[in-house]
Design a protein that fits this description.
This protein has 368 residues and is of the alpha+beta class. The protein contains twelve helices and eight strands. The strands form three sheets. The protein has a four-stranded antiparallel beta sheet, with no helix packed on it. A two-stranded antiparallel ribbon has the order 5-6. A two-stranded antiparallel ribbon has the order 7-8. The two termini are 85 Å apart.
Amino acid sequence: GFFFFLSFAFPSNARASSSFEKERKMSWFGPAQPPQGGGFNPNEELRRRQIESLYRMHRAREVVPNQTYEVNPSELPLTLRIYLPPAFPQMAPVITVSPHQRHRLLDEKMQVHHPSLQGWYPNAVLAQCVADVINDFRREAPQPMQGNPYAPPSSGSSFAPPFTQPSQPFGQGLPPVSTPNFGGGGAAAAGGGGMQFASPRFEVPPLPPILPEIKEMSTEQLQRLSDDVAVFGEFFRGLEQVKLVSRRADQLHQENIEIAQKTLELEPRISELKRMLAEAYEMLSKLRSDYDERSKYQREMAKQYSPQAVMDALRIAMRDAEDASEDLATKFREGELDVDNFVKQFMVQKKLYHIRRVKAEQLAKNPF
């Protein structure tokens, strides 16, 4: 906003010469020789330049001279109607939409409630506010509504949407410029297990409609200020508002240096924590590998000693013991074994068979 104001205050050499040719010694902020019929009104000059920016940036169409203008955004099936109240630019403009649309930025009267309008201040750029509204509509397209109870009147009739007096002074609705701050006073506080952040508020200094330093200058002084870059730079840096912003910038720069120093002081601790983390991760990898091997072995053992596997093994062992006893009986019948050896070996095999059979029956009744 401040640089936009300066662009109004100091036009190019060609425009300045043309202005002098047409207006004859009239300065930017007041006539060198007051014209007949009243003095120079700075608000009217700002209003005129705001309207010119609307023409240049959006090709606006004038509906009511010096009051109401229309803009037809490309790729959007709607029309923005911009009403400039009598106190504009001290008072925010009123923007409405037609035809009737449904959107989060619109109320039931199709009036636009955009942050750029709610935070309006005298040196804001009207064309940029309109561009912000259009960009939001392009990102999130409004939805058409049936009927249009708030349709704009036909051309030729005056259109003045209702507007309300702002509830707070201009500039207070603007979002503050905040920077991260460690602890109090911009320094980093590492105590208590971590850094603590605060967000100091930085209010942009208010700008008057007319700079008193320029208002008292003559036409020659203003011409020199416009032509000589070095003179303009010296004048610009001497403004109280610029000094305030510069001091705040230096303060923020110093706070950033303190934050960087605290960060460098914490670097050894961070490196140590990184090393500990790497060691813990390596140990975790080893434990994970050992766990996987043991889990695999446990699954194999569980599969090998499952109730069904044990039952199958007992049945096979029962058949082996029974086959061995049958072989002994065959050898005894064929005379290959005497009575004593046959009885001794046969009793062992039969006993083993019956033990395994009992175990199989018990396992079938009560599986583990």
